[in-house]
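Support case: flavin-adenine dinucleotide complex. Customer-provided input:
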Amino acid sequence: MTAPRHIAIVGAGIAAVTCARTLVQAGHRVTVFEKSHTVGGRMATRNSAFGTFDTGAQYFTVRDPRFVQALQTTPTVCKRWSANTVQVLDEHGRVAAAGLPPREPHWVASPGMSALVRRWAQPLAAAQSMEMQTHVTAIERDSLNKTQWQLRTTGTGDSTHVYGGFDAVVLAVPVAQARALLEHTPKAADLLKKTASVTVSPCWTLMLAFPQAMQPGMSALGPQWNAARSTHHRIAWLTRESSKPGRGAVERWTVQASAAWSQEHLHDDPQRVQAKLTKAFAEVTGIRAEPAHADTKRWLYAKTDTPLGKSHLWDRKAGLGLCGDWCLGHRVEDAFVSGLELALAIA
Ligand SMILES: Cc1cc2nc3c(=O)[nH]c(=O)nc-3n(C[C@H](O)[C@H](O)[C@H](O)COP(=O)(O)OP(=O)(O)OC[C@H]3O[C@@H](n4cnc5c(N)ncnc54)[C@H](O)[C@@H]3O)c2cc1C
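Agent response - structure generated as follows:
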């Protein structure tokens, strides 16, 4: 083990929290900075009067034995989701192929996807190692010790603060946000150049609730399936949220627009996006009932198209590291492996 160091970690998604936990286990001190008021990043859960929606990651798969081991540390949080079959639909919403049985188990955190990272972050929060609602706006050489780093941040009500004394800084954020910070960071030109080939698509997400399906005699609206990939030009994926374990019973759907449609409508008014996606949802599922609740969420950086091709970037001399799903792919497990391997490289 190297001498204990104080490491700043920007972001509190699964890559960041995995990295932070591993560094703490190796005897280092960490401070995690997260701009949002919650942890989890794109493993996100939104509440509504009718129950929760997983607005980002829908489920995850587990292939790496180190992910298996990490999940076993919190065995009650994740549950198998028997989506039964994931249907593949043609552009008119017809089942194009017989339902595909999942090739591997689908897992969800319960009561919502954000619960896993929240649980893993608990010891960090208890040790007062997390600065929430703290947006890192610049990474600079520490004004008191030029061998170290300091971070400029903005918090609630536009308050600003400088945190110093870091031996290293880890960026565990989407690649576009990492690039924006690195552009003005001393000694970061090489790292910045290495991220140049990575590309990421946005995703508009629609949430719908149909409490009328709870009325006597009605079990569920529309199709019998709970999850589907779709080739409709507007819609790529649909999930019946209420089919996931530990969620409320009110019929709720989460719908993800295709990458191409999301890109084309990136700056549209959310109300307009909601109307267009709700229409497409009716075409795909045959559910024409009026939803009691509808909402949208725009993810600017949702899915990696071209990953970096290696698990992380670490410049030991500068004390700067990068991790996140975009290093390896577009899945929760990619983010986990990336955060873990960066921490092992640092430690
Ligand atoms: C719509 C959608 C559907 C998805 N579906 C699936 C799926 O079904 N299965 C699957 O495996 N994966 C899915 N994913 C991908 C999965 O969510 C990601 O791979 C994973 O959550 C990424 O984790 P991360 O830690 O790398 O980044 P993130 O979760 O994005 O975490 C980054 C964190 O950094 C914070 N941050 C950014 N900039 C700053 C700053 N300057 N200062 C402070 N904090 C900052 C952000 O607020 C965020 O909390 C989906 C993603 C989306 C968006």
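The chain is about 25% helix and 30% strand.

Case will auto-close in a few days if no follow-up is received.
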